[in-house]
Specification:
The protein is mainly α. It contains 14 helices and four strands.
């Protein structure tokens, strides 16, 4: 699809309709197209073309547009300004109340077990999808769901799915966020390229030994550090 194709698709949508653009960060990183240089010179959708399609002179009124992303920090401010994105909703990880309510969806009227289940897990650290997967794995076994609740924390994918911004906040190193952005590092998985303390210092320009060590331990998967990190809060880190 190119700019004209995007405009046609949006203009062909019926009046009073809802349009959903999923994973908008998958189209652009900043103002650069992720497909730049691919496809044998295919034109693709440009950043200016997307903005014009959303609210330019050729845009259509009478529609509600939703854009979703798992990585808001990647999005250019021009895309997020009022007029293009008038309302921003952050769907966070599960609160204790949401854990209980989801437990009750799978196990109606088991209020005491729901409370016991939620007490075992940290708030705002686990996605609703992972909780749902746990309940489906032990469907119809509410006692087992409670007994094995800590298994959810043992999922090795939890850390890799985290954004670098959240990662740094929890390490109390958020002042270095710009260093990572300059290198195009947005996910914890991207840190695997920095395998030792020398590379962290040289490439990310972090020189304080204690901070370099703290990052290196996490990147290298030092077990004790990871176990502590999985439960740590911002207040505890500070």
């Amino acid at each position: 699809m190119d700019d004209d194709g995007l405009n046609r698709a949006l203009n062909d949508a019926p009046s009073h309709s809802i349009i959903l653009l999923e994973d908008i960060d998958g189209i652009f990183v900043g103002r650069e197209s992720v497909s730049k240089g691919k496809g044998g010179g295919a034109r693709g959708v440009t950043f200016s073309g997307l903005l014009n399609a959303l609210d330019g002179v050729r845009s259509q009124e009478g529609r509600i547009l939703f854009m979703t992303t798992n990585h808001r920090e990647k999005l250019d401010p021009a895309l997020m300004r009022p007029g293009r994105a008038d309302f921003h909703a952050h769907l966070n990880n599960a609160t204790h109340e949401q854990m209980k309510q989801l437990f009750l969806k799978f196990n109606p009227d088991r209020y005491e077990l729901a409370e016991e289940f939620a007490r075992q897990l940290p708030e705002l650290k686990i996605s609703m999808a992972k909780l749902q997967g746990h309940f489906l794995k032990y469907r119809g076994q509410p006692e087992t769901q409670v007994e094995k609740a800590k298994q959810i924390l043992e999922d090795s994918g939890s850390l890799d799915e985290m954004s670098v911004a959240e990662y740094l906040r929890r390490l109390n190193l958020d002042k270095y966020a710009a260093n990572f952005t300059e290198q195009g590092i947005y996910f914890v998985t991207d840190l695997r390229h920095y395998a030792n303390e020398g590379e962290i210092t040289a490439n990310l320009k972090i020189t304080k030994p204690m901070h370099v060590k703290r990052l290196a331990c996490m990147i290298q998967g030092e077990k004790i550090t990871q176990n502590d990190f999985s439960l740590i809060s911002v207040a505890t880190a500070r």
